[in-house]
Amino acid sequence: MNDGPLLALLHLCDSLFPTGSYAHSDGLEAAVAEGRVSTGADLEHWLTVCLHECIGRCDGPVVMQAVAAAADGRRGDVRRLDEEVHALRPSAAARRSTRHLGRRLLRTWQASRPDGTPWPSLALDDLPRGTLPVAFGVVCASIGTPPRAAVHAFAYTRLAAAVSCAMRLLPIGQHEAHARLAATLARVPRAVTDMERRTGRASRPSAFVPLLDLAAMSHQYVHSRLFLS
User: Fold this and answer.
1) Of 1 and 151, the one with more pLDDT
2) 3 lies in a domain?
3) SS3 221
4) What is the CATH number for 43?
5) Cα 228 to Cα 206: distance, rounded to the nearest angstrom
6) pTM of the prediction?
């Protein structure tokens, strides 16, 4: 990647970028409240499942396909992906979360780069749901990010967001939290390669993570909540 697209991608992935992910735990808060996640080792296991199942089988293929479709101007394919990834979220909280984050990403990116990103200026009207993986792919296409690099970047943002939530939920220090994140990030390239070999670039995403889905569905019953989901 050239300097300009690389800097734009770093901006997109920085925790300073206001997508609102700090307010969503995606079920981790409920899992902690139920005692399913209580240690650093548990957190790393949670991250591993998120990497290989949530990203590797669902959101990763969607990001990759959204980049390619948006770069080619195939708006119908982008809209289809957006509807499909929304439908694959089994809980209302998860659907609200991905829609909130995706639309916030598009609005912020459009406002910060109004002259250089033609797709986001249209995407809020073109995308019926504005889900996060599709929005991320559309923005990556607008800055010239290759599809594989876009999946790597998306994986980083989601795993880092989970660790940020964990640091507020668990008795875990910064050093251990970042060590667990680093160990999981080291497995991202292989996970993306496995994703490409398993699904190809044109296959449909899938989703089967019942324990994570149940945690997301249980979030509303947590007695005292820090997060929206």
Assistant:
1) 151
2) no
3) helix
4) 1.10.4190.10
5) 25
6) 0.91
